Amino acid sequence: MKTSLERSSGSKTTDRVVVIGGGLSGLVAAHRLHESAKQLRRPVEVVVLEAKDRVGGVIRTDRRDGFTLEGGPDSFITNKPWALDLCRRLNLEDQLIETDSAHRRSFVVRNGRLVPVPEGFVLMAPHRLLPILTTPILSWRGKLRLLAEIMIPRRDSDAEESLASFVRRRFGREALERLVQPLVGGIYTGDPGNLSLKATLPQFLAMEKQYGSLIRAAWRQRGSAETRRREKESSGARYGMFVSLADGMDVLPRTLAASLGEGAIQTGRPVRRISRRSDRAGWVVELLNGPPIEADAVIATTEAHATARMLDGLDPSLALQLRAIPYASSIIVNVAYRRDQVKHPLDGFGVVVPAVESRSILAASFLNVKFPSRAPAGSALIRVFIGGATQPDLFDLDDDAIREIVARELGDLIGVRGEPLFLEIGRHPRAMPQYVLGHLERVETIRRKAARHPNLFLTGIAFDGVGIPDCVHAAETTADAVVSALAGSGSIAAA
What we know:
By secondary structure, the chain is an alpha+beta fold. The chain contains 16 helices and 22 strands. Helix content is 36%, strand content 21%. The strands form six sheets. It has a seven-stranded mixed β-sheet. The chain has a five-stranded parallel β-sheet with strand order 12-2-1-16-22, with helices on one face. Strands 5-11-6 form a three-stranded antiparallel β-sheet, covered by helices on one side. Helix 5 runs antiparallel to helix 6 (173-188). Its cofactor is FAD. InterPro entries: Amino_oxidase, FAD/NAD-bd_sf, Protoporphyrinogen_oxidase, Zeta_carotene_desat/Oxidored. This is Coproporphyrinogen III oxidase.
């Protein structure tokens, strides 16, 4: 692979696309480009540059003593089809595993105790009445206020609203603090008071507009959901809402990387700057530790703040908008115990912790229950989440302090006693973008400014969704746009 500024005359018939970032977004974009080139029967050289010594980004799987440890996401949702479809195209369908059929529920902490989330309560929409009436999570006053939502008129204003404001307005303060905040915090590691409803969970805004009430919408949709479930069962569809990969989540990035062929990925190659070629017919990607690389198109998939640094010299106003996207840092701890060290029956997939409980963890996932193959029989494998936008100071604690937090919190909440079999700490600095108020307008501005630079493309979780399916969809859409742009410039279209 040529990695110098000048390209030999023999390579002029080949378009070169440089993908910056070897996380899932970068690998998916590169794979899509590679597949498109094969279909077009035209060579396209894809170069993936990754600053670290490994690909996969936040997806990281470690294996030890019969345990499978996930340092990032441990599964992905299937009601958005893009990640599932990608796995099928990669011939990974035999690797797909569902969450275990037993104990498909989660807990929320109430006064230091684990209480099941009311059955049928999905983020902020109650699909069943009786579980709300009987749950000890809410006081009777809180329950009555929540159920009064059906009488609250829809909001006529189109002004942007925070997630917290929306929930308080429709369901009341107690439902926000005791149910919605911890459940949403488990997804975005964010503060609902700052998060934009329209950017994070627009489906609930649409439910209010269409039905006038989320309760009314949930009850009407429940019948449709039952119909879809029966249709799914009769068609032989085999997956639940969440799936993982039998040999670990890193099978996905490793398979994507292998599909690109030898030499396509360069690790340990941090990018210093992206600039226009002197003849303005292409791009130059300057590295911190090697000769610059010339490209016909560039896809930046890195965090918004990292991309901003690369674009400072090219377009300061674009870089400024990218830097304005805030990020949260978090810690994921994988800790294993003998099962007899844990008093709690662990009869659920995990627990989320409301901020009003004033504890030092955001959530804990019981991975040996969620995916039993992840841990040997007779053991418990727990993932503990710390930090996020609501407790940023905890991210700066040293490893000893983190170990103390894990021991104290798991001891209090699920009765853990004694030393763990092992404990591994994974830190994710400034890794989770926060879709705060104004996010959609900012993304629109970023895209408008980026469009002034032909064949420069931006993608990643900073813009349109933080889940794996959203990431896959955005990266594939971006790769398709690159193919169209190169075709329009008379490059691959000539094939």
